[in-house]
């Protein structure tokens, strides 16, 4: 799913609040999503230390003057993967907020279905930003919550990078979260190496046993397991699982273990290691990442990729690569989508309007059925815009263009005075729609008053908190709450998120949200 990044700027109202001027937003830009952007960034070259600006030989034997400052004094470190120059967000988005309030807001966010809301959430979670209230402890706690939110949505690669930036040895909670993500991404050896040198980093006996086995410390693993059994430190099912992991030859030919009521990343990997892998379809979304590996069958890979793409956690090109990896050997369900997309891509490569007109309606319905329209838009909007189509195919291509980042160009080509083209241009038609949803959108782009409390919170350096509120309002608006939709869109525009407001409104009208 394409998650367009937003060059976030502030109009006159918010500029007045801050007392500083910012550049005007260019809505015609075609920025990458934060997920896509992170995948394109090569590791920066390590700079060579500059030569010291001092003579090579001391002129006296006196000790140099050394300036001493207490640790923790001064500006706190920034935590985030995407720089302010890319997100457009200032590094003060959390500074004025109460850390506990931020934690509650992030954890209470619903599972978002609106792509624009997903995009905005990833942007704010991954943005470089300073800790609230100049408090390093608050910054550490907020970093953990940000990582948990990314993990919950299946964005494990950025979650792993963010927790490593925050410091995996900062606390036992940091290490345990790092270990969970590492287990799901197959990078547990690094975490185990750290634990081997610093066993105090976790209180989880099952993690200690697992890492001892990975380090070939068999006696240590057996002793820890025996202690856990004798003292009742782990549930019975976990002890049985660890026993089979540590002594596979003893249980050869034994009946499979029952699946636990609540899976955790370590147990998931242990089941896989003893030859009893668990299906991920009924597990939380983060477990689907394991099915992207070549170890899984093609159908499992496709299902996992679709699930993660719907959540905005997987780049569009990754899904396309799996869709076109080979020819489907069956029909029905996901195989029909694969076949439809492959046939459309062949038609598109021929450049034949007739072939495209024949395959586009089929693949578009297939994408709609799977809630993957925005992934399709991100992949094919540009080449489709260059093809002259007629009839149903032309209507679909026009809607795809309105859903793309180049919606303003689509409005110029359409040359109509409808609500959709008005949103794309930022100029509402004179006639107010009769539906509650359409009227709310019309009002939001035609002078509706933004939420005063949310606008005021931006002045108090609580932009991140404000965005979290707006994401929740957008979600409610997409589900049919007209008042929430009007307030969300009007406030997004008031604080400079014009592109987000337009894309959200277009998606609500054109997608099956």
In DSSP terms, counting alpha (H) and pi (I) runs of 4 or more, how many helices?
Answer: 26
The helicity comes to 55-70%
Shape: globular
Strand content: under 5%
Structural class: mainly alpha
Ends distance? 14 Å
For the largest sheet, list the strands in their spatial order: 1-2
Low-confidence region ranges? 1-29, 42-52, 66-75
* Biggest sheet architecture: 2 strands, antiparallel
Helix and strand string, N-terminal first? HHEHHHEHHHHHHHHHHHHHHHHHHHHH
Number of strands: 2
- CA-atom Rg in angstroms: 26 Å
Q: What is the averaged pLDDT score?
A: 87
Which features does this protein show?
single chain; globular; disordered N terminus; two-stranded antiparallel ribbon; 26 helices
């Amino acid at each position: 799913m394409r998650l367009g990044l937003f060059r976030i700027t502030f109009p006159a109202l918010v500029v007045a609040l801050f007392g500083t001027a910012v550049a005007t937003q260019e809505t015609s830009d075609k920025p990458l999503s934060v997920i896509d952007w992170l995948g394109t960034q090569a590791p920066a070259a390590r700079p060579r230390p500059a030569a010291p600006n001092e003579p090579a030989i001391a002129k006296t034997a006196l000790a140099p003057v050394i300036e001493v400052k207490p640790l923790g004094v001064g500006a706190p470190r920034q935590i985030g993967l995407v720089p302010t120059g890319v997100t457009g967000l200032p590094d003060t988005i959390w500074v004025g907020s109460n850390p506990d309030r931020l934690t509650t807001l992030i954890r209470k966010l619903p599972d978002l279905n609106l792509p624009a809301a997903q995009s905005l959430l990833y942007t704010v979670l991954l943005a470089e930003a300073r800790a609230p209230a100049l408090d390093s402890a608050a910054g550490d706690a907020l970093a953990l919550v940000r990582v948990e939110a990314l993990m919950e949505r299946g964005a494990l690669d950025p979650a792993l990078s963010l927790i490593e930036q925050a410091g995996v040895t900062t606390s036992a909670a940091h290490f345990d979260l790092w270990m969970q993500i590492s287990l799901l991404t197959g990078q547990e050896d690094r975490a185990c190496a750290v634990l081997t040198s610093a066993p105090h980093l976790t209180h989880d006996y099952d993690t200690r046993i697992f890492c001892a086995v990975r380090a070939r410390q068999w006696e240590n693993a057996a002793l820890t397991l025996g202690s856990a059994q004798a003292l009742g430190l782990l549930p019975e099912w976990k002890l049985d699982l660890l026993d089979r992991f540590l002594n596979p030859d003893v249980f050869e030919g034994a009946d499979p273990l029952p699946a636990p009521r609540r899976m955790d990343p370590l147990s998931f990997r242990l089941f896989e290691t003893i030859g009893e892998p668990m299906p991920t379809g009924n597990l939380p979304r983060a477990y689907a990442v394991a099915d992207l590996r070549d170890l899984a069958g093609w159908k499992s890979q496709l299902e996992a990729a679709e699930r993660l793409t719907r959540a905005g956690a997987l780049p569009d090109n990754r899904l396309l690569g799996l869709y076109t990896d080979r020819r489907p050997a069956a029909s029905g369900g996901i195989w029909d989508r694969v076949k439809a997309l492959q046939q459309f891509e062949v038609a598109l490569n021929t450049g034949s309007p007739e072939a495209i007109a024949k395959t586009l309606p089929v693949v578009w319905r297939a994408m709609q059925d799977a809630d993957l329209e925005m992934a399709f838009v991100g992949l094919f909007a540009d080449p489709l815009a260059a093809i002259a189509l007629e009839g149903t195919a032309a209507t679909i291509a026009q809607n795809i263009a309105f859903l793309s980042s180049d919606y303003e160009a689509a409005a110029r080509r359409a040359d109509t005075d409808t609500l959709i083209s008005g949103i794309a241009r930022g100029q509402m038609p004179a006639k107010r729609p009769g539906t509650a949803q359409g009227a709310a959108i019309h009002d939001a782009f035609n002078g509706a008053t933004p939420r005063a409390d949310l606008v005021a919170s931006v002045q108090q350096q609580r932009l991140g908190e404000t965005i979290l509120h707006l994401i929740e309002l957008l979600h409610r608006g997409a589900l049919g709450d007209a008042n929430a939709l009007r307030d969300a869109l009007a406030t997004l525009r008031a604080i400079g998120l014009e592109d987000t407001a337009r894309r959200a409104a277009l998606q609500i009208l054109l997608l099956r949200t």
